[in-house]
Amino acid sequence: MNPKRRQKIVFSLLFISSLLVITPIFLIFFFIFKEGIKVISWEFLTTSPARMGGGGVFPAIVGTLYLTLGTVLISVPLGVLAGIYLSEYAKENLLTRLVKLAIINLAGVPSIVYGLFGLGLFVIFLRFGASLLSGCFTLSIMVLPIVITATKEALNNVPQSFREVSLSLGATKWQTIRYCVLPYAFGGILTGVILSIGRASGETAPILFTAAAFYLPHLPRSIFDQVMALPYHLYVVATQVPGVERRVSYGICLVLVVLVILIDLIALITRYQIRKKKLW
Length: 280
Known about the structure:
Layout: H1 3-36, H2 42-46, H3 58-89, H4 94-106, H5 111-125, H6 132-156, H7 160-168, H8 173-202, H9 205-210, H10 230-239, H11 246-276
Helix pairs in contact: 1-11, 3-6, 3-8, 5-6, 6-8, 7-8, 8-11, 10-11
């Protein structure tokens, strides 16, 4: 067979495969948008629910933002530092390999397991109770493997020559990492942060046991208060409250999807601006 013809066939198969993956996603989003836009209004977005399943979703939006922000503030510093240690400082031995294997396995643990772990450790043992703090810690543990793996891979992708030149000029190991490695790995690290934000903001099971309130018409006053969150609010309205119009569930779903997209979009724009400054 002619090589050019074979190449066209392969490209066509790849295009069809991509189309088969992308099309259902667009169809799902279109259906959610079509049904959810009917209930979206300024009042729906800015008022508190008058009853469970009725009124606005403002406390749930704010609660979701609080949980996401708290998760990022806890998981990103710990995950980045752990990734730096594993990539730049840890020696390659049996213990290091076991730690890396454990991180990979933890990324595949079901979220309900993290929820039960958070319930036992933060809610009961540490006596934080069902609160914003417990939810943030639980979600942080859940997304840590994503941040650590992304950081480690981003650091490994920085050319070794950058380190060698810096060390040969008399810089210390940390100075080399701080000024010659991290700036060029920041885009990849931010990718892990984006993935962790997407997972943390859309999870229901972990906050079901640790943070989410069934009905809370006001905002949390401290980190030890429960919060409403869009994923859990959607679950309750769609399955637990009788007589709620279907379009309300789609409206909540649309708000959650748009909120996640906006947060990820900000991170993507930041990553793009940083990558533009790369010289290699």
